[in-house]
Input
Amino acid sequence: MTAITVGSATGTLQGTPAKAQKTFFARAWNAFIKSRMLQAEREIALHRHLLPAQFESAATRVGRHDDNLPFVR
Output
């Protein structure tokens, strides 16, 4: 039989924990989401001149109350 002593008494090196890496599908899905968001932002910027000026000021009021929105229910 063989006896092995592991610990501070021996000269073994403590392994550094491996960095947790996202799976391929998680990275692909995040890249897909990011590309779709960038495409949406490009489309909004492309057609921003067609939006009324009320939408620019409404962006600051959206969180306060629904009655402040620029459209009528």
User: Anything to note?
Assistant: The helical segments are 24-46, 54-61. The CA atoms of residues 41 and 47 lie 10 Å apart. The mean pLDDT is 76.
